[in-house]
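QUALITY CONTROL LOG
STEP: pairwise intake check
CHECKER ROLE: data steward
CRITERIA: each record must contain a sequence immediately followed by its structure tokens, with no blank fields

ENTRY 1 OF 2
RESULT FIELD BELOW
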Amino acid sequence: MIYVVIAFLWAAIWLYLLLGGADFGAGILELFTSDKNKSKTRKTVYRVIGPVWEANHMWLIIAIVILFVGFPKIYTLMSVHMHIPLVIMLVGIIARGTAFTFRHYDAVVDDMQVVYNKIFQYSSFITPFFLGIIAASTVSGAIDTEAKDFLSAYVYSWLNWFSIAVGLFTVSICGFLAAIFIIGETDTEEDKRRFIQKAKFMNIAAVITGGLVFIIAYLEGIPLAQWIFGNPIGTIAISAATLSLIILWKTIDKKNAVQLRILAGFQVSMILLSLTYEHFPNIILLKNGEYLSLMEYQGEEKTIAALAWALLLGSLFILPALYYLIYSFQKKGKVH
């Protein structure tokens, strides 16, 4: 049953990156939109993500619950040593959701709308940025469980150039996913062309920041290239991601929404696979050379079995309901 739990953990992280990433990316696109087009972009973003934006955080909640229940030692270590970026990320989620709601449903339209817009845009950037920082910190070997001072224990474990580079890469990926998704939801050819340009811009940014991640990893002695290209699965996955990128660029002007979404989702999925395969089942690498393994630090056997059954049975209710939610609002949008 442990493999069922791990599969759900990986799936929750994957779906949060894809669906939640596209959600955050909508705000990132708005942040990097000219003042002339901001209002138009804002209306498009609201129409596309408004009905389902909160549902995307379900995947993050599932991942946290799995770690808390199934892997308490791993959850504890992350909560203690990464509490600063975790709090910033959670504050970003709350601030973003609050601003998104008030800027559309506030009974009084006044200058506060400008404040709500800024909060939404910047929190949409900050949240995935710190999500990337947290992910990078777990594998960078910077977490020092033997630290004797506050900075070494709770700041330097995540505040380093490698984590910052991964944070910027995550932001670029989110913006790219959002632009690709919105292309298929636009009403006019002008809007389609505008979001195609945004998708290209964010994809270029992802390539540049991805290269920066490799450069900084090399300078800081993190064997990132070895992790990815040192095994057949990683090599195949990153090659497939590169191939899908080439195909996407060749077909993006044809505006085939379904094909573009499949290619973008596949590309991001292959990148995630290439980065996680080499470490499995090790989820955290520590500064002293030790690691925390999902197999070695799992909870009691009965707890894992109960958690696995809860996830399996819960998915029978959650997944159809989520599909119906998305389907309903897409159908409603087409009617109007």
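ENTRY 2 OF 2
RESULT FIELD BELOW
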Amino acid sequence: MPEAAVRQLCWRDFHRQVLAAFPRLADAPYRPGARDGWDPDPTALHAWREGATGIGIVDAGMRQLLQEGWIHNRARLICAGYLVKTLGLDWRDGAAWFARHLVDLDEANNWGNWQWTAGTGNDTRPNRGFNHARQAERFDPEGAYRRRWGPS
């Protein structure tokens, strides 16, 4: 089995153990003292959900989610990071949206990864962020993904 697949299985199992120990993983910050106040912006949340933020790599991921019910892990991280770190919106709204649309939903992994991205989870680097432009350059340098899932 490829190393990357083993790593993902380890994360899945880890998040299942975290959920077993902390049943409120879906609705409360795991890390004591972590940020719990987020800026509400229904317009920005709606644009993110619809893949209409104007950020190509984010919009591509969100459109793929809506059309296929699946997106690659890297696109999930980019989209999640944009919602919580760039827009400052509540990770729970993003996690619930993913939970509603993902055909491969693993609840523990979904909530655990959203908390990790938001900096509220069991992580020693709560200020981590994803630069969407750098991520697009690194993982979609020719723009094929953005073109495929761009506006019709």
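INTAKE CHECK: passed for both entries
DESCRIPTIVE NOTE, ENTRY 2: The domain at 3-22+40-148 is CATH 1.10.579.10 (DNA Cyclobutane Dipyrimidine Photolyase, subunit A; domain 3).
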